[in-house]
Amino acid sequence: MSGVNGIGMGSSGYVYSVLSSGSRVQTAAQGASESAILQEQERQVGGLNAGTQNMEMAKGALNMADGATAQITDNLQRMRELAVKAGNGLLSDEDKSYIQDEIEGLKAGIAEIADKTNYNGVPLLDNEEGKVFQLSTDANGTTKSFTTVNATVEALGIADFDVTKDFDLKDIDKAISTINKGRATMGAQTNSFEAAINSNNNVTYNTVSAQSKTGDTEYGEYVQKLQKQRTLEDVQIAMQKKRQEDEENRKLGLFNN
Questions:
Q1: At 143, phi and psi to the nearest 5?
Q2: What Cα–Cα distance (Å) separates residue 28 from each residue in 38, 103, 155, 215?
Q3: How far apart (Å, rounded) are the C-alpha atoms in residues 207 and 231?
Q4: Region 131-142: what's the mean pLDDT?
Q5: Crossing angle (nearest 10°) for helices 219-256 and 12-21
Q6: Integer Cα distance of 161 and 5 in angstroms
Q7: How far apart, in whole angstroms, are the C-alpha atoms of residue 233 and residue 179?
Q8: Residue 12 has pLDDT above 60, yes or no
Q9: Beta carbons of 46 and 53 less than 8 angstroms apart
Q10: Long-range contacts for 164-170 (Cβ within 8 Å, ≥24 apart)?
Q11: CA angle, corner 224, sides to 210 and 25, nearest 5?
């Protein structure tokens, strides 16, 4: 007889376990193919979730870099205004030195932004030219990459910009153009990651839904099974009790004889 606390698939213990856990496939013995399918789906969901987290981090890094380069653009625009102002033959050398002092302050600000902008300790703007950040995006280890922009004053070509000497306004324009192109690229990459995250979320949702259909308990069905199993066990208990009574009566009959 299957006891109430049994764990076999034919026992009420199994049915109780299914109802309490919400899962009808708890071991491979209870559904070998279903168990394998569920394990594969679990692998996919875990990988997709990890890939989504990676891409969310990439988005965060790109947003941080974009905010920093917006500040750098403001500094460059102010430098350009000052350079235009300095291109005035009616200004004295002392006047131009005052302008250059502000320009040096703006360059120092750009250098500090480039140096301090990092994500999780990884520099985003103070990096070698062409540096590529790579990350896994799904359960299969598919990689996706992104780039930022090297925004140091050396990389922008403005480290030695000095209006007290011969200068070319195009140097500032080139720096502004470099930052603008970098921001456009980062914006496009952010949109790409957003689309990939939405795709991951869609696949994850459908995979979890499939998992539910494969492994989740159908409560109405298992309540009926539990009722049926209880009835069968009650009958088995009654039959066992009847056998015990018959055996006792048989022994009493032999003794009386």
A1: -105, 150
A2: 10, 72, 60, 12
A3: 38
A4: 90
A5: 160
A6: 84
A7: 78
A8: no
A9: no
A10: 164/93, 164/96, 164/97, 164/100, 167/83, 167/86, 169/80, 169/83, 169/84, 169/87
A11: 35
DSSP letters, 43-61, are: HHHHHHHHHHHHHHHHHHH
- Does residue 201 contact residue 193 with C-beta atoms inside 8 Å? no
Give the pLDDT score at 30: 47
Give the per-residue pLDDT at 155. 95
- The dihedrals phi and psi of 5, each to the nearest 5 degrees, come to -95, 10
Q: What is the DSSP letter of 135?
A: E
- Tell me the per-residue pLDDT of 15-64, one tens digit each, with 9 for 90 and over: 545 444 445 555 544 454 666 665 776 788 888 899 999 999 999 999 99
42-48's contacts with Cβ under 8 Å and 24+ in sequence apart are 42/211, 43/139, 44/139, 44/203, 44/207, 45/139, 45/204, 45/207, 45/208, 45/211, 46/139, 47/138, 47/139, 47/140, 47/141, 48/138, 48/139, 48/200, 48/203, 48/204, 48/207
- State the Cα–Cα distance between residues 65 and 119, nearest whole angstrom: 9
From the list 149, 154, 190, 146, the residue with the least C-alpha distance to 171 is 154
Cα gap 209→67, rounded to integer Å: 39
Sorted by sequence, the CB contacts under 8 Å of residue 157 that are 6+ apart come out as 171, 174, 175
Helices 169-215 and 32-86, packing angle to 10 deg: 170
DSSP character at residue 161: -
pLDDT tens for 193-207 read 999 999 999 988 887
H/E run at residue 133? strand 133-136
Whether the pLDDT of residue 120 is over 60: the answer is yes
Q: Are 10 and 2 in contact (CB under 8 A)?
A: yes
